[in-house]
Design a protein that fits this description.
The protein is an alpha/beta fold. The chain has helices at residues 4-13, 46-56, 130-144, 155-162, 164-178, 187-194, 209-217, 219-228, 256-269, 292-302, 332-341, 345-351, 413-427, 434-441, 444-454, and strands at 30-31, 71-74, 89-95, 101-107, 119-126, 229-231, 237-242, 275-276, 282-288, 316-317, 356-359, 373-380, 383-390, 402-403, 408-409. Strands 10, 11, 12, 13, 14 and 15 form a 6-stranded mixed beta sheet that branches. It has a 5-stranded mixed beta sheet with strand order 1-2-3-4-5.
């Protein structure tokens, strides 16, 4: 604790802070880790996030809400990498039939003790009205949200109790008092905010013949580029995800020395910028395609080259009972047991895209509810057990997973997951991903097989 003031001072010296990262206030706003650089975005969502941040930070009216409050912004019509629909407010950048830019607003999402996918309360909101509308949402919540029971204090409980339609009516009534007033955001302000996110000094680059030749000569490099590199909107550049999911290391863990090394890589390969993801990985957003072989060689030395992004062993895992005083059970050993069971990457690839998320308690810091496969640690008379859920999703097709059945002992978890995946392999149709198979056949075939073998 004695070190905290110095830590905060050092953060402030590089324009970072911990303001409103805790407490019953509007927490820091999040978005896609590829924001502003990925192909296919409607627009860069970062200026919208900055607008929300400037409005919400130290907001005197919303400093003591019934409970904590989180907002996420998504700008990609095909992919949601920010779990936007399970936030208190989800803001989607959209265009209407006339081509005008605006927002679709969802409210009342969240995980934890009562997992809920948010509800749409506005299909299209003119862009200049965003802050006035968010203000209206927060006012309705601040007035009617419960303060007598912290387990029923989140906005999702209020939206469910009123129904989304009634909640939307109350927001619209409040919005009428605010629309066209001082909270209206002029276009000049959006332009000012956009100026904070200037593009780096991109070069005009041809397609990299060197990269093509290197990939042809090195199957390991080729596989890594295929799995961990994402298409950049600027020709000649690439988005690289550094996998912090090496077997034997806690998911997302990185040492101080590795952090220094990664910072050096960011300086050399990505204009000095490094991003983090809610999936517990790191991103270099602006890498020249011709530099990918050299970068890959350095990542191999650091241990961040595991080519598993989007696959089973890219596990989201909370610290669990090893570190967290709230946890009912350990999480990290379960993740490691599953990773060790599936060390053959060809076998992992054959399983196709799978999100596996682990939480050590009902607070759901590991987002287990929205994992294609979710694992929740529970306490049974002082012993650690694990509940499995199937069919969750954090994308545009967001859904809460279904609980498979009674919980399992820690020592059985790798085998249980293997039975779940073998059931999928037996039932899938050609080219069918795990989530699609589950949604087609339902939970019963998985339940029958897992518990039959458990007996």
């Amino acid at each position: 604790m004695a070190d905290v003031p110095e830590i905060l001072a050092e953060l402030a010296s590089v324009e970072m802070h911990a303001i409103q990262t805790s407490g019953n206030c509007i927490r820091n706003t999040t978005t896609d880790q590829f924001a502003g650089v990925v192909a296919g975005e409607i627009e860069d969502p970062r200026p919208t996030c900055e607008l929300i941040r400037q409005w919400s930070t130290f907001h005197p009216e919303f400093a003591f809400l019934p409970r904590k409050f989180k907002i996420a912004v998504n700008a990609h019509p095909d992919v949601d990498r920010a779990a936007t629909q399970v936030h208190d407010i989800g803001v989607f950048i959209v265009r209407n039939a006339a081509g005008e830019r605006g927002y679709k607003i969802m409210v009342g999402g969240g995980l934890g003790r009562t997992p809920i996918v948010g509800s749409i309360i506005r299909d299209f909101l003119p862009h200049q009205d965003l802050i006035a509308y968010l203000d209206a949402v927060l006012r309705v919540y601040n007035l009617h949200g419960r303060r007598d029971n912290k387990y029923k204090a989140r906005i999702k409980i209020l939206v469910k109790a009123l129904t989304p339609a009634v909640f939307a009516e109350q927001v619209e009534a409040e919005f009428k008092h605010l629309q066209g007033g001082p909270l209206t955001v002029p276009d000049a302000e959006f332009e000012r905010l956009a100026s904070f996110f200037t593009a780096p000094a991109y070069e005009t680059l041809p397609a990299s013949a060197e990269l093509a030749a290197a990939r042809a000569a090195d199957p390991v490099l080729d596989n890594w580029v295929h799995r961990n590199v994402t298409t950049h909107k600027v020709p000649g550049y690439a988005i690289v995800t550094l996998s912090l999911k090496k077997t034997g290391i806690a998911p997302g863990d990185i040492t101080a020395e590795q952090m220094e090394a990664v910072a050096d890589l960011a300086d050399r390969y990505s204009f000095g910028e490094l991003r983090s993801t809610h999936e517990q990985n790191l991103v270099l957003a602006d890498v020249r395609q011709s530099d990918l072989p050299a970068l890959h060689a350095e990542l191999k030395v650091l241990g961040f080259d595991t080519a598993n992004i989007g696959f089973l062993t890219n596990i989201i895992c909370c610290p669990g009972g090893d570190y967290c005083s709230l946890a009912n059970a350990k999480s990290i050993p379960i993740a490691e047991a599953i990773q060790r069971r599936y060390q053959d990457l060809e076998e992992v690839y054959d399983l196709g895209p799978i999100d596996l998320n682990i939480s050590g308690c009902m607070n759901a810091c590991g987002h287990h509810h929205v994992g294609h496969i979710g694992i929740l640690g529970v306490d049974k008379r002082g012993a650690e057990f694990y509940q499995v859920s199937l069919g969750g999703s954090a994308g545009h097709d967001a859904s809460i997973g279904d609980i498979l059945g009674p919980s399992f002992d820690a020592g059985d978890m790798a085998e249980v997951i293997e039975e779940v995946l073998n059931t999928y392999l037996d039932l899938r149709q050609p080219g069918e991903a795990f989530l699609a198979t589950y949604r087609r056949v339902g939970i019963e075939p998985f339940k029958e097989r897992v518990y039959a073998n458990a007996d």
